[in-house]
Structure prediction request, 94 residues.
Amino acid sequence: MTEPEETTADDGGPREAPSAASQLFDLRTIIAVLLGGYGIVLTIMGAFFVDEAQLAKAAGIDINLWTGIVMLVVAALFVLWARLRTLVPPGPPH
Prediction:
């Protein structure tokens, strides 16, 4: 009796472990890094460098702070998505 394959790709072939390069250059990872970087900058600017004139223009809402927080949440979701659904290179043709 043979051992069954642990996981299979969509085409029914054996699934290979994703390489570090394919995960590093995954578009979801790049988007997460960019959104995270801009989110950090906006959160810091909104938390520490806001003045009354900016708040008056935005109807009393600290737009930089809230936009930065939302961008950080979206970046975390992209990272979670990339971790849970890793890229799988196609297997050799049959």
Summary: Helices lie at 20-24, 27-48, 52-57, 63-84.
